[in-house]
Structures are given as C-alpha cells and as structure tokens.
Amino acid sequence: MALTDFFRINLPYGIQKNEEGYWSVFNREYKPLGYNESSSLVDFNKLPVHTKYKGLTSLQITKLIKNREHIHLDESGEVWRFFLYEDKTNPQSSPAYWDEYFTKIKSLSKFEVDEISEDRRVIKPVIWNTVHDALPEDSKLLTVLSSKQDGEKQALATYNSFDDGEFKPGFYVINDNREEVLIDFKVYWWAYEDYFPY
Fold it and tell me: What is the pLDDT at residue 118?
C-alpha cells in the first residue's frame, strides 16, 4: 500500500521488538514513522528509532490488543510485533475507529523509557503489598523466589503493575496452555538474570 497521506506516513501502524528487547514503531509500509519512500529496505537497527520501555511486557500487550491475529510471537512465546489496526479498522475508513485507535495510543503513552543498565544484577526483598518501590517495572523475565520456609520455590515471571479487573498486580507465569497465571506462592524475593539470594 502506497504512502499516500499523513496518516499512513506519520502515525503508528504497529510496533516491533528487536533481539535486544528494544521497540520500534513503524508506519503502514513497515517503515520508521515519517519515512515516505516504500520501495527500499530499512534496517531499523541502524537507525536511532528503537527504545526499551519499562513495563511493556507480553502480558500488557495482550491486554491492550484484543485481536490475537494482530499479535506475533517469537519462538519463546514472547510478543515481538503487534499491530494497532488493520485495513478494515483503519481510522480513516470510519470515525468510529478513531476512538479505538487513540485508546491504544493513550495506553502505550504511559510506558516510560528504561534507562537502567543492561548488565545489572539486582536483588531486592519484597514485602507484599507494602513496599511498592521495591517491585520491578520493566519487561525482563525475573526469577521469583519464595521463602526458605516455603521450600525455596522459584519461577520465571514478569511483573504486572496494572489492575484492570482481569489481571491483578503481581508476578505472572505462562502455563502449558499459554495462559498468564498469577504465581500462587507468597513472594519474598525477585532477581534479575541468574542472581539468587541464597
């Protein structure tokens, strides 16, 4: 589809993530926003158009994008690309679609840039429901551990900080049915990468 107007050239059609976890927004021709030439290939990784956002996890994306056909998963089951509309729901085709489109834009706008170093290895105690500033806010998988008294159970999970009625705040894992489920043991610790408290 040709880049024939302001909407197709400058407004997001979708968002994709590279292998390092950085997101890039693309227009209707899968080019960076503002790119008005559709025939040439563009290497997003060579342009300053990618950013890592705190909290933009697969869980948050699946809550935002209801049509699963608009979500693409990688081999590990993580979202690597998603779309904000399709041709039949293009906001230009009907005024009704503008509200749906900008609701998604509004939801995405609250995710802040993650400026924390990639090589960090952080371990923090979590006092459940009291120390909110100790909870993780980025999209990296975390090792979540229970107490020693609880058998030192552990799981790889992501943290959900938004309560929309369907998902409560807490640590979520993906079960065998590819569903997000809340960890069922009391959390005492979470750790980045392979750092363990004991």
Answer: 41
CB-based contact 167:64 (threshold 8 Å): no
Look at the alpha carbons of 152, 158, 159, 164 in this order and tell me if their dihedral is positive or negative: negative
- Its pTM stands at 0.58
CA distance 59 to 55: 9
The residues with which 51 forms a beta bridge, in sequence order, are 23
Give me the pLDDT at residue 9, please: 93
What is the DSSP secondary structure assignment for residue 32, as one 8-state letter? B
The first and second tokens of residue 114, run together, are 């993650």
Can you spell out the DSSP letters for 174-196? E-TTS-EEE--S---EEEETT--
- Rounded to an integer, what is the distance from CA 40 to the centroid of its chain? 28
